[in-house]
Every structure is written in C-alpha cells, then in structure tokens.
Structure prediction request, 307 residues.
Amino acid sequence: MEDAIAGFKAVVAKYPTMDGARDALAGLENIYVELGRVSEYETYVRSLKWVDPGTLEFDEKYYQSAEKLYFEEKCPQAIGAFGDYISKYPNGGYVLNALYYRGDCHYRAGAYEQAITDLEEVIRRNGTQFMESASAMAADILFRDKRYEGALDHFRRLEPIAASPQNTLVAQVGQMRCLRELGRIAEAATAAEKVVANSQSNADLKSEGNILIARNLADRGELDAAYTKFKSVATGSTTARGAEAKYNMAYIRHLQTQYRKAETEIFELAQKFPSAMITGRRAPSSCSAMCTCSSTTFSKRAQRCRA
Prediction:
C-alpha cells in the first residue's frame, strides 16, 4: 500500500492539475479510505494549491472509511477512525451512526465506560434506528456496574420499543432485577408478573419472578398466599431458588407461630436441598435457629434472619 501511495503521489507531482492528476487522486483516496487514514489524505490534498478542498466532501470520506472498518470487524481501527470523524464533524450528517458504531465497538471490547458515553449520547439525540440496541447495551453496562437507577431507566425505555421477543424479555427481567436490588419489592413483583407470564421465560426465570411475587405478598401480610406461591417454586425446583422458597415457607410458618410445621419444612429442606446455600450460608437445621427480627417487612426480616 505504501508503494502505491508513493506512486500515485509521484503522478500528482508530475501532472499538477486536476485533469492530469484526477485518476491518481482517486487512487490515493481509495487507499486512504480503506486504511482508515483519511486525515492524512486531507492533509495531503490541502497542500495542493490547485485543489479546492471544499469540493471533496471530506465529511463523507471520513465516515465511509470508519464504517468500512467497522463492517470488516476491525473495531480497534474503526474506533480511531470514528473518533477522527466525530472530532472533526461533531454535527456531521453521519455523527449519530459514528457514535453508535464506536459505542458498539467499545462495548464488544469490554470498554464499558467509553461505550456508555457514546450509547447515552445516541439515546439523548433520539437516534431512532439505534434506540433499541443502544438502550439494551446501556442498561447492561449500568446493571453490571450496580448503577440500578440508570439501568432501570434504560430497561424501561427498551420494553415498548423492543422489536424482538428476546429483547422484550431482557427489558422485563432487567426491570425486575433492578427494582429488587433497589429494595422496591412491590414494584419488582409487578415487573415479575410480566416475566412469569412471558412465554420466552425459562423455568429458572419463572421461579425468580414467583419468589419476588411471594415476597411482596408476605410484605403485605398475606402469609398464606405467600406460602402457596413459595410452595409452587419449591415443589418444581431442585436449584438454589427452590431451597430459598422452601426456607421462606418455613419462615412463614415460624411467623405464624406454627412451630412444628416450620420444623417439618426445615427437615424437608435439609433432605431435598442438602447442600443448598441460602444467601451464602447453610439453611438453619431447626426452628431454634430462626431469629426474631424487628424489620418492618417480611423481605427484610427473612433476609436478615438468613444472614
């Protein structure tokens, strides 16, 4: 490529007019665009006093060069090329595309802080064609970073615009988990109802949702209804979620002062889930291990007693 560049420049030097050097300039342009080095081409062309750079549409050339690298899966080079375009043409006709594609490259590389800046700018500018995927990536980044309020906003934006059933589910599950982590159990339970009703949800997601629904019922004092919901999870699961549900069944019986029933639940828990860990600790082996807690809601009491 460097030999070709030198050869075309030699032609331009020998025939310093637009008519004489047109083909050589076109060849140089193609090479520089392909290499993502449009800024070098621009600097060179601007040094030719007989060329009017205003007629050469560098905006489009910078963008096309970066886009070509992106679609060729050359993200490291594309990031730099999109950066050149955005820096030079912050209000250019392709800036929205450039921000999104650069953000996507950063996201795929795990450079989440750089990615979130570009993706949220795309969202702020209301980039309709990229809104769904930009919202999904932005939500994922913020959730990973435990910035649940911000992630929740993006998941909520994603749900009504999702074009695929999978992204609808992603949005619903994301809202459920953000609200759970924020301690907003009643809202999390409402989101969980959507997850449970979604035909795309697998058994584990349905269990996760039903546990939140049951926790909310218990918080409202509907202990029998909560017990039934926890039981539906424990009966159909052999995973840690099933163990969590079984533990909460025992805890409900404990709150209802039905101590023998609570003890039976604990024994069944130990038999069905012998190595299950509840919030990082083994389940208590008897009702005497269940503490009395002063927190105001079932969710908080159960969480503290398991700890």
